[in-house]
Amino acid sequence: MDYSTEAISETLRVVNPAYRRLDAQLRSATGKLNRLFAQFGAMNLDATIEPEQVEPFLQKKAVLQEVIDPLQNEVQTAKASRKATPKHITMNELPEAERFKQLGTQSKHLVDTLKMIAYRAETTMAHSLREHLSHPDEARSLLQALYRTEADILPDPEAGTLTVRLHHLANASSDAAIQKLCGELNETETLFPRTNLRLIVKLGSS
Prior knowledge:
Blueprint: E1 5-6, E2 13-15, H1 17-42, H2 51-84, E3 88-90, E4 102-103, H3 106-130, H4 139-148, E5 151-156, E6 161-166, H5 172-187, E7 198-203
């Protein structure tokens, strides 16, 4: 992977930053307003209707109303501004300071290709392994456990081989299935890339 960047097509449509800011402003103001409405609605006069009881109650309601009124105006203004602002624009319509590039795609395509090759190889091995398991649906999990185990790599230029000696797994049944898979892999007589060494996969010291 690398950190190169590439220019993005000027005709690509993206979310308008101005719309995003207005939307965030509107959501924030609406949330505050709803909390104030809830607070306003929860205020009840439970005391007797006497001046010393009613006046403080009305004063609290008035103070809260003074906060609610400008916030309502702010919400309405934000709604109107958001409605008048296009949600999506093309790249060439973005302000210069807000334009961006995308990460390079060449290395990503290469990595994706390698992942697909690895997936297909694993699928083929899992298909073969299922024939030797009492629970065929565990084939992939067994392979993934195998990938995480340690192994010894033993090149032998004179014999023309490269042996990968796998360590034993958790139980004998898994070992037996992997042993049979090793036999099938060895029958392919695969040469290790860029060498003349035939790849041999074996389990333990057998």
